[in-house]
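FAQ
Q: What does a multi-component entry look like?
A: The components come first, one per line:
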Amino acid sequence: MSHSNSPTAKSLGEHRIINIIQSRLSQMPLMPIPFGDDVSAVNLSENHVAVLKTDMLVGKTDVPTEMSLFQAARKAVVMNVSDFASKGVQPAAALIALGLPTSFAQKDIEEIGDGLNAGAQEYGAYIIGGDTGETSDLIVSVSLFGTTQKRTLMLRSGARVGDILAVTGVFGKSSAGLRLLLDKTCSIDASSRKTLLESVLMPRARLKEGLALSDSGQVSASIDSSDGLTWSLHELGRLSKVGFTLDVVPFGNEVKQFAEQNGLDASELALYGGEEYELVLTVKPGGWDSAVAAVESVGGQLLPIGRAIKERKILLTVDGDIRPVEARGWEHFKSHV
Amino acid sequence: MSHSNSPTAKSLGEHRIINIIQSRLSQMPLMPIPFGDDVSAVNLSENHVAVLKTDMLVGKTDVPTEMSLFQAARKAVVMNVSDFASKGVQPAAALIALGLPTSFAQKDIEEIGDGLNAGAQEYGAYIIGGDTGETSDLIVSVSLFGTTQKRTLMLRSGARVGDILAVTGVFGKSSAGLRLLLDKTCSIDASSRKTLLESVLMPRARLKEGLALSDSGQVSASIDSSDGLTWSLHELGRLSKVGFTLDVVPFGNEVKQFAEQNGLDASELALYGGEEYELVLTVKPGGWDSAVAAVESVGGQLLPIGRAIKERKILLTVDGDIRPVEARGWEHFKSHV
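Then the predicted structure of the entire assembly, as tokens:
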């Protein structure tokens, strides 16, 4: 399968691979959501769409040793729900393609079944079918389905200059948690450790926040942050044809504490982490109060972190200094912790 | 992951693994199609359903060495289309979860993209999204989506005693073709060789036949035959609570010739092959002529091979003798050619 004068999957990276595949595909006429957004969709009627998403968890790259099979299977569902959350769509049903090494025990398989069910039930969805086959790695490929009114979809492409940039929570917990798991020399107190590990092992999708934001009608663009905050900002900017200025890097207290105790930069952890499931979105300037009220009514929070600007860059204001934020993020095939 | 007193995936086999996973799942209320049919579905309205299917192709178990990446990717789509065909549902869109070894070249990835597109376009569907990740084996997990009227679905469970058992074509070509690929001592003339290999490398789904049969309204039950003819008969019987008597084993001329030249039994090749994509179905006794006319109007054929009977067995009549047909078929984890 190797061709001496052709780049490999490893050198191409996930984003180029997706572009190559897309370039070979015939495009469906009247696609309600273009390629490159968090989910795909098919028109059901003039106003309704079916929303579809598939995202695959691979044991060797996506599952730290400390993660149980229950947690891995649950996470495979949750990472798909997060994409639905970012568009404001309630998931109804999921199908699972499950690749198992032959050595897996019945107990392992039961644990996977329980994790899949937990991930779906937490977000009001059901697993209605699937397939299984023999693989070298654990593979949990989840396909999620739901329906919604087309006008309520929060796409990546709608941000306008002047819109308020906001997030549904703080960043950096997953990257700090992953470092705790991988580097035994990292230290932190027990309570913070628990919080950081939980964000890796038991991630939560911001579904109720996404549904409330969609209902509010005040969101101009939205994306999930599974490839990291910076990557999400660059994608939101690229598809909306705007840039962003950040007044603050939103990291939590545990991340600040972890960074201080281990000689790391909390901003770096928050900007360039991956596997985070907060929503990153823009709100129309006149709609801020009602967007905040919508999110708070479901027990969530909305943190303003900047503005959409005309210049197509991500600019961070630190102590009065303005510096550009480089486009980096987690990328399969290329990234290694 | 191994537990000394728990059976492994290898000893459990695909069907038991699916049962174990299912037993851990909360069941969606009012499922329009129960677990265990060829596809899954979600109600869209009183009369309409969304139809969903996911089926995963794994390089090391599902792709013979002689199969190109174009052919493998195309087949991954076609095997999902075959399930839609068996229910009489037009597929609209597919999502792909693609697992690639890091060594794959750009040219390989292009070939996969072309194969996916070819498989979808042959059957009037579009690929609208997906995901990719780094895996040890090639993984092509396809999720197919379409919509239909609930009353036109041809389920596995509707066969009644006295219904005519029929197939859309002859069997055994794939198992003969696979033997040709795996055992270099097998011989056959060039033209038959081409036909047999084509059924392995470029399988066709009986979509137009399935749609025409559904439109005819004469089919009481239907299943695809990707796990082999015998397995399909046992499943159709189990879910319809009937048995079948077979007057004939439907194998083609090339299969007869291949069996004779290589000391094999053509009936065995036809009954116990896998990876075949004919439809196996039952027709209401008064509806035979109109079912045949429907299939012939789209260029297909409908071959009667027996009847549904009360006794819950599969019985084969050979030269006046009646013998039971054992329930065997291709099964991932357990079967090895």
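Q: Is there any commentary attached?
A: Sometimes. For this entry: The domain at 164-324 of chain B is CATH 3.90.650.10 (Phosphoribosyl-aminoimidazole Synthetase; Chain A, domain 2).
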